[in-house]
């Protein structure tokens, strides 16, 4: 079977867009603004495309809000500055100091004309969004303002604003009279959610005191208190018949309550998701837009729900550190992504939608897939390994017995033919390896346990025929084991530091390892000798995989680089650079022999690499053919003295010497005495150059001007450029100031040399004159 060596790849990045903090969704239900550290990212959550990314002011964002019409974004940071941007361009409209303390919450009214800000000093301000001035300055809270909600519109008969704070009080403000209508006091903790009914007669408030209060805003009396049993981070009223209230908080699920009877109508059904500290992931906000709710979780994921609280889809905003990754699914369109968390994310390749596998009690470390991609094995710090059925997202088997974190796991490589895996290999920090026999009912039993290494086991792999398996360890060795007996059949020695990765060649009796000594080594399975060593990484090699039918190796390292090595030549075919952090995970799609691969780094960025080697080779061939044709054209133009076309083509081909010769010959010929360049047509060519062509020509002039032999041509060409192009046009040339700075010193040197020659010419005239006098006969 023939294969094309891979020498070029096209990168598509799936970058994180939410690291925690405030989020806001426009009324279109797809334009989402999220805080990303100091920056703000605006994303279309339907397509996953980034609309714009707005750089911060070097201070952490405290809050943000996108206008309901999606036209404006307002942000506040710890610098006390409020900035307004236009969407989608990301253009800064204005910047102003908002409060004397950081702004904690914001709200924009339904008409997208007013924005309310609540500060840590207890003040509430209302601003004209378009013109940027303060319309109301409302004081009265005795603590940090924690919730805001408008009702009505400017100019209407009823125009109100409700605000809540950590003084446990709610204030209702009449924005027409600019007065506080009422102070509602019935909470015992911070108020986190406020919502008005459609007619404005009901106000709902939710707080961290685990209750939701329903208020009559005609009489300003408490109608009902609903005990929700969890600390509330958000609450609101759903549109439609009856009073239905949604809540979200520390339990991590969205609930809907009957506001008239205090009964629970529905609760989101999902397994408990945990973060890297093994804490339950909570709801930090709910973005409600008419026909859907988007639950924002503390693990930086978004869960879109319908009004029956059925999960429509789950979107990941930030992966944290990506530890391991592999293709799953029969069509290999999904990835199993391991992050610093007990849960495994099953994510669409190149997309942001994800599912979750929940079951591990501590962070997952490693994953491996079956031949057909329908089974997934995982291992973690909870001393367990698990086997998952990917199509149903269910756990099939649990392997318990190790006394330390399980750092490596490997499934059979032969096709399973529709049955579950019959065995699993695990390696642990307890320095042992185990082979587990898996029964049809998912029962796992250890067939044997062997002490394998003197230090942690980092990686495992099973041979293509399932007869051998291999281990890689921090003790600087790798070992090959017999599958049936569990005995070592070979030891691979030669690395100077711990071995991070190990993979069997699927087509040859070879095995590849990657180590902390920055090298990749290929070993023979016949005598376990080192066949080749590849050097080029500047940091630890963390992952290695085979591709191109076993003729090439792909490695990723702590230097953030991915390298493709050709085994036969021992050379690096291509270096791929699209990561800013350590590339811990690397996977090659097997169905098309690595035409696509993925990599994940310590910053949570996933890069999808598409093999474009054939396209690049075809493009190079076409470019070479075009180059030959154009060079022949250039020769024909020069032969026929078609200087106009010859100069333009020489510029296009970027051939400085031929271009110089053309200008030199035209100057030497001087057909037009009134022309700067000696030919009016050449002057016209230079006068008609666009900005890009001018940049190329000025670069050539700069280089020619450094040599006295070519300086005359350089000065003539530069003179022609300055005469025929305005200052405005020349100012558009990139780096024009830098190029002119390089031209001036050499031009001054050439001028001084000519000036000295001119002065010396007087001495020559004098000498010649005296010689004439000597030839004159003397009269005695």
CATH architecture of the largest domain: 7 Propeller
How helix-rich are the residues, as a percent range?
A: 10-25%
Number of helices: 8
Overall average residue pLDDT: 91
Strand percentage: 35-45%
Uncertain spans: none
Query: What is the overall silhouette?
Result: flat
Task: Please identify which CATH superfamily of the largest domain we are dealing with.
Answer: YVTN repeat-like/Quinoprotein amine dehydrogenase
Strand order of the largest sheet: 1-56-55-54
In this structure, how is the largest beta sheet organized?
Answer: 4 strands, antiparallel
Description:
With 780 residues, the protein is of the alpha+beta class. The chain has three domains: 186-310, Methylamine Dehydrogenase, Chain H, CATH 2.130.10; 324-615, Methylamine Dehydrogenase, Chain H; 630-763. It is 17% helix and 42% strand. It contains eight helices and 56 strands. The strands form 14 sheets. A four-stranded antiparallel sheet has the order 1-56-55-54, with no helix packed on it. The longest helix is centred in the last third of the chain and has 40 residues, at 736-775. The protein is flat, with a radius of gyration of 36 Å. The mean pLDDT is 91.
């Amino acid at each position: 079977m023939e294969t094309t060596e891979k020498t070029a790849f096209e990168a598509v990045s799936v970058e994180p867009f939410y690291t925690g903090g405030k989020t806001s969704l426009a009324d279109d239900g797809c334009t989402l603004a999220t805080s990303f550290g100091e920056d703000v990212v605006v994303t279309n959550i339907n397509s996953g495309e980034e609309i714009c990314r707005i750089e911060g002011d070097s201070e952490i964002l405290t809050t943000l809000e996108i206008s309901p019409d999606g036209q404006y974004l307002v942000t506040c940071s710890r610098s006390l500055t409020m900035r307004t941007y236009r969407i989608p361009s990301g253009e800064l409209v204005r910047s102003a100091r908002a409060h004397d303390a950081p702004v904690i919450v914001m709200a924009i009214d339904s008409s997208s004309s007013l924005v309310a800000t609540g500060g840590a000093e207890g003040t509430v301000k209302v601003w004209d969004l378009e013109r940027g001035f303060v319309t109301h300055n409302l004081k009265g809270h005795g603590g940090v303002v924690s919730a805001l909600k408008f009702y009505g519109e400017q100019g209407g008969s009823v125009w109100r604003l409700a605000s809540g704070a950590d003084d446990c009080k709610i204030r209702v403000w009449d924005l027409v009279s600019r007065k506080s209508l009422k102070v509602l006091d019935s909470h015992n903790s911070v108020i986190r959610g406020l919502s008005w009914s459609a007619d404005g007669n009901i106000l709902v408030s939710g707080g961290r005191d685990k209750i939701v209060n329903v208020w009559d805003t005609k009489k300003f009396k408490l109608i009902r208190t609903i005990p929700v049993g969890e600390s509330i981070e958000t609450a609101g009223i759903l549109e439609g018949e009856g009073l239905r209230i949604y809540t979200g908080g520390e339990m991590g699920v969205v609930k809907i309550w009957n506001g008239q009877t205090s009964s629970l109508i529905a609760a989101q059904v999902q397994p408990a998701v945990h973060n890297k500290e093994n804490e339950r992931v909570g709801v930090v906000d709910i973005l409600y837009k008419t026909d859907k709710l988007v639950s924002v979780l503390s693990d930086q994921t978004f869960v879109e729900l319908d009004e029956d609280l059925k999960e429509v889809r789950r979107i990941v905003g930030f992966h944290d550190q990506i530890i391991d990754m592999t293709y799953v699914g029969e069509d290999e369109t999904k990835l199993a992504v391991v992050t610093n968390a007990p849960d495994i994310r099953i994510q669409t390749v190149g997309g942001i939608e994800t599912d979750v596998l929940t079951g591990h009690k501590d962070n997952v470390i490693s994953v491996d897939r079956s031949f057909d991609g329908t089974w997934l094995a995982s291992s973690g710090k909870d001393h367990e390994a698990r086997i998952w059925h990917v199509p149903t997202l269910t756990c099939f088997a649990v392997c318990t017995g190790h006394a330390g974190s399980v750092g490596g796991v490997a499934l059979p490589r032969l096709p399973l033919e529709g049955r579950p895996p019959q065995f699993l290999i695990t390696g642990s920090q307890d320095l042992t390896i185990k082979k587990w026999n898996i029964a049809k009912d998912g029962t796992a039993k250890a067939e044997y346990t062997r002490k394998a290494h003197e230090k942690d086991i980092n990686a495992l792999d099973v041979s293509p025929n399932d007869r051998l398996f291999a281990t890689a360890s921090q003790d600087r060795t790798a070992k090959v084991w017999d599958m049936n007996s569990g005995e070592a059949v070979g030891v691979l020695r030669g690395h100077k530091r711990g071995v991070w990765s190990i993979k069997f060649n699927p087509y040859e009796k070879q095995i590849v390892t990657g180590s902390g000594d920055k090298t990749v080594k290929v070993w023979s399975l016949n005598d376990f000798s080192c066949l080749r060593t590849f050097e080029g990484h500047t940091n630890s090699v963390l992952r290695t995989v085979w591709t191109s039918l076993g003729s090439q190796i792909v490695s990723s390292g702590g230097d953030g680089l991915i390298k493709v090595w050709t085994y036969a030549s021992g050379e690096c075919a291509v270096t791929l650079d699209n990561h800013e952090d350590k590339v811990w995970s690397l996977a090659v799609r097997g169905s098309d022999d690595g035409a696509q691969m993925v990599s994940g780094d310590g910053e949570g960025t996933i890069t999808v690499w598409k093999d474009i080697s054939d396209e690049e080779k075809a493009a190079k061939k076409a470019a070479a053919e075009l180059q030959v044709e154009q060079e022949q054209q250039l020769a024909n133009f020069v032969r026929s003295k078609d200087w106009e076309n010859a100069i333009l083509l020489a510029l296009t081909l970027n051939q400085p010497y031929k271009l110089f010769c053309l200008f030199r010959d035209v100057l030497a010929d001087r057909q037009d005495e009134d022309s700067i360049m000696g030919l009016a047509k050449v002057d016209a060519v230079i006068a008609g150059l666009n900005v890009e062509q001018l940049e190329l020509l000025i670069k050539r002039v700069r280089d020619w001007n450094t040599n006295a032999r070519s300086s005359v041509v350089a000065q003539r060409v530069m003179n022609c450029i300055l005469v025929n192009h305005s200052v405005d046009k020349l100012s558009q040339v990139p780096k024009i100031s830098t190029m002119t700075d390089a031209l001036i010193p050499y031009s001054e040197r050439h001028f001084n040399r000519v000036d000295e020659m001119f002065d010396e010419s007087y001495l020559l005239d004098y000498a010649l004159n005296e010689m004439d006098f000597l030839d004159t006969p003397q009269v005695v």
